[in-house]
Structure formats: C-alpha cells, structure tokens
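no rush on this but wanted to send it before i forget. theres a chain ive been looking at and ive put its sequence and its fold in token form underneath. please have a look and point out which stretches look like helix strand or loop to you. thanks a lot i owe you, the record is right below:
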Amino acid sequence: MSFSDLGLKPELLRALAERGYATPTPIQLQAIPAVLAGRDVLAGAQTGTGKTAAFVLPLLQQLSVHPGGRAPRVLTLVPTRELASQVAESARLYGRHLSVRVAVVFGGVNINPQIATLRAGCDLLVATPGRLLDLAGQGAVDLSHTRCLVLDEADRMLDMGFIRDIRRVLKLLPRTRQNLLFSATYSDPIRALARDLLHEPLAIEVAPRNATADLIEQQVYKVAREDKRHLLRHLIESGNWHQVLVFTRTKHGANRLTQQLEASGIRAAAIHGNKSQAARVRALADFKANKVTALVATEVAARGLDIRELPQVVNYELPNVPEDYVHRIGRTARAGASGCAVSLVCPDEQPLLKDIERLLKRSLPVAAPPAYRAVGGAAPLKRRA
C-alpha cells in the first residue's frame, strides 16, 4: 500500500515524494486513517517507526481544510527541546505545499520571540509543557480553540515529572477534542493517563511491549570503570566509526568524557541540559555533518534526536531506568536501517544490566573486550571477562 491509498491530499503526497518516502510504515498505515476520521488513538511505537509522520500528516490535512484564526487548533506536547524542534521541522517539511502555520515553543531560550510568533498566529503548536504554561500565564497563548491534543513520547514526559504540568495544560483545553497519545513503553501511569484522556481509542502497537528494534545488534562488554574510556577510544578507532552517539548518566560525566576523547584525538561534543540551546543545536549540526565523531549525551537527548542512518550507539554508563535503555538504543536502526548498540558495563552496574534484561525478557550477549591500549601508549590492557 502507498501513501496515496490512505486518503492524503496531493500536496502532502508531493512533499512525501520529495523526501523519498513512498510506502507507509505499519504505524502510519494504521494511524493516518484513524486520525483523519477523528478518532482518539493510543499508539505504542518504539522510536524510529515513523510515528511523527503518523500524526503530523493527517493533522496537517485536517488543518488545511478550513483556515483558522490566530489561536492554535492542534497542540503537540513533547518532553524535550530537541524533540520539539524535530516535530516542528517535520510538520513544516510535510506541510510545505499547504497554508498551515507551524510554531514551536520550548524553554532555555528567550521567551519574547515566541510570544511574538504566537501573536502572529499559528495552526499547529509544538511545545514543551513548562514553557507552554509560562506563555499561558502571560496570556500569550490561547488554547480555547484547540481541536486536537497530541502527547508525543508520553512515557518520557511522565518519567521527567511532567504529569502535573500536563494536567494543568488539560484544564486550558476545550473538553471536547481529539486526543492522540504516543508512547514507546506502556507503564501503569501511562495506562492510567490513557484511561483519563482518551475516548474509545484505537489501540495501535507496532512492536512488542518495550521491544527493541529487531535490526539492532546488541553487545555487552564487561570492563572496569577506569578502563571504559580506553576501550571506547579503541572501538571508535579500530572500527573506523565515523558517527557514534555515546550516553552517560550525568552532565558532568558527559563533559569529562568529551574532554577525554578530545585529548585522545577523537572529535567529540557534549549535549545535555546545562548546555545552551545554541550550543546543543551546534553540536547536533556538527555531528550530522560528520564534523564530530562522538556526540556524548545525557538522557535529555535520548528522545528527539533524529539522525538518519546512525550506525552506532554506546551506553558508556547504563541508565538507572531500564526503559531508557530501549529509548537510547532506538536512536540507531531507524527507518529500516541496521545498527549496533554497545554497552560498557562495570561491576557495580551489573544490577542495572539485570533490570534491562528482565525488561527485555532475554539476556544480552556478552563478549570479552578486544585488547586495547590506554591513552599515552601504555602496555596493552588485559582482556576482561
């Protein structure tokens, strides 16, 4: 089946063709007709399945039918700045041949230009919860005309403590509206939110619960904490890796590892919550342009980084929340491509590894690390079991 079989307008089909997309993914196949029909949707889809287009395309079509005023008619709530930018950019690309106005607002940047944008008017608003409430508190955004609410990466928003903000936003919306909830994992809080929010939803699940992409080759190396950076450098150099996304648990750890990689001759940049938005955008742009080999990120970047054909993801430190492992490694093997996810696990992270395996309902393959040298030409380190 092609996109033309789903009832999309010629303008949207043209934009899809220009992007090289001809065949809808499973979630697009199910969600697009449902959204066009005005149904509520509860979609369980891991990252990289094409879920953004699954809601953006039909909503653009709905918005293009009747011109609106200044107030947004579609509100999409997302957990991070990066995801907000990505969703807004996708909406602009897919809607380039339609007269649909897209705006995006998030924290960490000057609020005044965002106020000016909203006063000029928009049809589809993409927002992080905190900044949206700030704008609402200043009377800069009118949500009384919102006909559809999208919660994207809803599980991540709950993980980040946004449930109170979400409920405050809900009070600003009309009671009668269409609701779309997208989540990579189905926790009990997500199911509770879905019960409160959705009316007779179409339930879509395109992958098993908390599954990781089938095309991702997963590998665990057990290594002493102090040897991790040396092994990472060896993997990058010996594997001739040109693009690797490396996850740490803390902002300080991300900065330290970035400095260590740079000192060993590997081009690296860090991206985390303490970085300015301009620095984050620049680091991501340099990474996509292959000016940076290793992008070192904290959990804030586990969602919303849309990097085509990203071949490698490394868990330099395992996440405290096992579901975050799924989100992290889902940055690779997107849109049908293959990918590799490597985890460097030191002894005190063994319980975290067990939690991840319990979530995945299977053991992850463990291999002995290859022989590698410490930076500075030290003798080869022993392989560790």
